[in-house]
Amino acid sequence: MSKTATERPVGSMAWLRIQNSLGRWSCCAVASNHCVAGTSTKPPTSAVNVRVVGGKGVGGCVRCNPVQQPYPPHTTGCGGQGYLSVNRFGQLIGFAHAGVTAEGDNRVLFQKVAKELSTAARAVPAVQARMRTTPPPIRSAAALRDLPTLQRLFTAREGRLLLQLTQRMRGLGSGEEVFEVWMKQESDLVQATATAYAEREVLDACARAIMSASGNVRETLTTLCILYAMRRIEVDIALFLSEGLLPAEAARWVPDHVRALCKELGPLCLQLVDAFGIPDALVAAPIAGDWVRYNAVDNRGELFGEKF
Predict the structure, then answer these.
(1) Left if phi > 0, otherwise alpha if psi is -120 to 50, otherwise beta: which for 221?
(2) Structure pTM?
């Protein structure tokens, strides 16, 4: 029988991956809403365009990357229920793949983000300020759960990468072609710069949403936002260490923080899913309803009754 969110062991790796994905989806949804609200009444500018394109790019990665893994966490984290065709995970994977093909490779969009940032680095004060940002001092584990500290850390990463990219492109040697260097030699740096920009934008948008919230909503949003930031640091820990943005001792605290935050959010995860407001009609699968009743009889993987 499938377990509820509060019964499932929080320490299981599949369950941790699901909660990390939920945190990332939630934060990107908040950022998307703030991006729309902040740009819908403004005329299109370079800054608006790069924010929208960057948000679309990171949103596409969030939507598609989990189901493109060899063993998607949404499947492995749900036990046998995750492998039943009636629960429609196969359709989800197919939909995600089709979305990537139809909407374009998000890595191509990130090329545009990096190009716009490189241009803005010459004359836009806000971009130049980010390039001068130094990493915050982190002397205790508690500092990693401070949102302003994490925002400064993400800004420092973006600024460091953008500085490296602009210096490389401005220092092209004789005989070096821009396209050859940008697309082939420095492709990893281009992608890392755009990703750092998009993830910093998500974090800043979540911080703005937290400021306008109150009570339990504010507390939950803060935990989600910090989980998002900590998980992004964990994924990109090699860069934070190699660039001197994060002390080695602080890096050792990151995995423990991620797991502790997942444990805090565990009892709330079903409410977080409900907060997306997905209509029941679009979730016609036993795993999204009364899965205890569904498992009570030998249904051989078939739907039964009007409830499903």
Answers:
(1) alpha
(2) 0.78
